[in-house]
Amino acid sequence: MRKRIFFILAVLLLFSGTAHALCNRSAAPCYEKEKDGWYYGEKLQGVDLQSFHLLFDPGRHDPEFADYAADKSHVYRGDRILPGVDPVAFRLLGYRYSRDATHVYYDGKLLSGADAKTFVEIANGSFKDAMHVYAGETPIKDADPATFSLVGGYPGLARDATHVFLIPNVMPDANPRDVKDLGRWYWASNKKIFFEDKPLVQADFATFHVAGDREYAISAEDENYYFVEGQALDKEECRRVGAVAIACKDYIFAAKEKYTAGIDPVSLRYLGRLSRMLPHSCELLESMMIYQDKNGVYGFYEGGPISRFTSFRPKERFETLDKDMESRLCSHPAVETMEFDNAWRQN
Question: What are phi and psi of 2, to 5 degrees?
Answer without folding.
Answer: -60, -40
